[in-house]
Amino acid sequence: MGELREKNNITEMITKPKDVLNKNAVRIITTCHEGGYDMYRVPGIITASNGDILLYFEGRQRDEKRRSLLMVRSKDNGKNWSDIQILKADSGIHMLHNPLMLCDQIGRVFLFWNVDYRRLFYQISGDSGYSWGEPCEITDVILDWRRDGWNVRQFAVSCGHGISTKNGELIVPLWMSSSETAHSPAVFATISSQDGGRSWSRSNIVGSENGVENPTEGSIVECEDGRLLATLRHGSQKDRKRAFVQGRINRWGIPYLNEALPDPICAGSLLRMKDGSLLFSNCAFEDIACLEARRRGIDLSWSKDARQNLRIRRGGRNPGEWNEGLFITKEAGYSDLGQSTDGKTVYCFFEQGWIEGNCILNKHLVFLSIPASII
Asked: Which residue ranges does the record assign to the Sialidase domain (predicted)?
């Protein structure tokens, strides 16, 4: 698996000179209707302490409630990939979704996942994801938000990855909804552990304010000065700009929009590089057609081609401006960022290609490896 397929034009994604790429730089990891699943979605990536690259994602059947949690591994910096491993198999009874991993300071890998948008579990691997301990349920941590007046009905950890801070705190982004059937009204929050996962505490919630509406899937990073930065998917129907929020452990500030960063209501990713600089990926598209349709009274959440123009940008060591970055591909979707153990190579794992022109239905999950110096 993971062979280079030039016929899909994925090798033509990069706008920089092709001599910065080697033959292993772009790999199709999965393709819809192949390998036993109708679609593969919500990509996540971490680099384990032994240097292995772990890619994890959902495998979905035609019935979207039938999902398995899957993983592939590369032991040679993305040149070759393992066969798909089933982390959690579809039971046919409960929906499994939203796998998220993080690697702590002593090299353990944590895997989090949800069941039916009502329960949250994690388990730990001490050998870079080759074997796993017993699952531990921490649903009660989420339900404790009800004591703060937020009536949690549905929730999920975000797609992508969590983080371990310089001080060893583990931080996991998530969203919650007070609706039984919909993903809004929604808020963003995090849970964290300061004792290696033995106990978990809750942040304050980040709700709808300051132009940010119903924030959900988030990606977090620790800045050089110790502040936390999160970038948020949100559902504003007035404009399409990327949302961010800054904070400290368990304490987030007021969310805000970055007017220079278009976003079509889609998950993105943040990453702190070894040199301290920050990377950000998202579909950099404002979806003006949808906004104009809504002004005419048409009830439309997004255009069929909204999730386009995937781009990776570099920022400074602390929150601020982002450069123009690197254009990756037009037909895109969710993305997650990782890096090599020496920090010289950036990894991007993303949804690519649209089934029948519908950006919500992706054809592939693609792995991209590029020199950090070209971003």
From this structure: 52-344
